[in-house]
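Here is one chain, start to finish.
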Amino acid sequence: MKLFNKADADGLSELYSEDAVNYQIPNEPVEGKSAIRDMFKKEFAEAEMVCIVENLLQDGNWAALEWRDPLGLRGCGFFYIENGKIKLQRGYWDKLSFMKIHNK
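Its structure:
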C-alpha cells in the first residue's frame, strides 16, 4: 500500500512476476510486468488515488485485501503469490462511483 499511495508505478511493478496478470474486473486484464507498470503509470497520471487497508487476509498462496479510500470508494483485491511475486491479481470496485468521485 505504501508504494500505491506514493503512486510509485515502478516500485509496484517489481512486486509482479514477468508473466503476471492484473485483472481489475471493471476493465480488461493486463498481462505482463511491463504492461502492468504502464497501467499504473497511466492510472496515477489520471487520478490521485489513496488506499486504506480495512482487512488483509492470507491463506496459503492467496491474499485478500479489503480497502477504502478517503473519498468513499470501497473495493477488494485478490492476489495469488508464486515464488514471492504476484502472479495474479483481481480487483473488484465500482467504476461508475470512481468516475463520479474523480469527475471523469
